[in-house]
Amino acid sequence: MDTTAVQVRRLVRVYGDHQRGVRALDGVDLDFARGSFTAVMGPSGSGKSTLLSCIAGLDRPTEGDVLVDGDNVTFWAEDARTQLRRERIGFVFQSFHLMPYLTAAQNVALPLRLAGRKADPKLVRTLLEQVGLAGRAGHLPAELSGGQQQRVAIARAFATSPAVVLADEPTGALDTATAKDILRLLRTAVTDLRQTIVMVTHDPVAASYADRVVFLVDGRVAGHMEHPTVDAVAGQLAQLDQLVAAAPAAPAVAR
């Protein structure tokens, strides 16, 4: 089996005119290994969320390629990309995005139902147990705390055993203590379940739970850090301008 869950090759995304538009991504090359936890960091407008959108097939790259489980999904038709998102990509958002009229168990089962698969009640119970919500299966989102709602969202993201979980600021709406609980939960999913997670964050504490940090500036990879610590990440963030100035320009992609 290929040890790489997701690859992006010379990824370019231009908004507006190809020559004079905004280059949100400018020749990004990255590999995300199976069972790894990667944090993506950078200033506002650096291309972090655009990278996640391109991996998920929500946004079509201007140039370059996205491979999921070895399949080049870059120019798949919309229905195929919708199926990709339903079956092979999990999502965790800052604002939870739970269905307010569905219970915790029904929210966890939703991706399976959308994919046309029967939701096994035992699987749903197991997922809720794994995120510490065994006793909250019948509760609506309004009856849960913010941290509990995010745990439901994480269980939902794992429901289809996806190739990768894309987390966009998953602790941004939580208090410090709850955020650490969520980050420990994500860390455990990587260590114990071999789940692949790519997380966009601005927080050095959140990044310190990852195996690796990728720094983006102006749509380009400005640096990498293995085994990050809070202090090391904070120090690197302060030097991003120098890192990107030293990086070579990305070549154009021929098609």
Automatic annotation (TrEMBL):
It holds the Pfam family ABC_tran. GO terms for cellular component: membrane protein complex; plasma membrane. The keyword Transmembrane does not apply. PROSITE patterns: ABC_TRANSPORTER_1 (PS00211), ABC_TRANSPORTER_2 (PS50893). One of its GO terms (molecular function) is ATP binding. Keywords: ATP-binding, Nucleotide-binding, Transport. SUPFAM superfamilies: P-loop containing nucleoside triphosphate hydrolases (SSF52540). InterPro entries: AAA+_ATPase, ABC_transporter-like_ATP-bd, ABC_transporter-like_CS, ABC_transpr_LolD-like, MacB-like_ATP-bd, P-loop_NTPase. Residues 6-243 form the ABC transporter domain. The keyword Transport applies. PANTHER family: ABC TRANSPORTER RELATED, IMPORT ATP-BINDING PROTEIN. This is Putative ABC transport system ATP-binding protein. The lineage of its organism: Bacteria, Bacillati, Actinomycetota, Actinomycetes, Jiangellales.
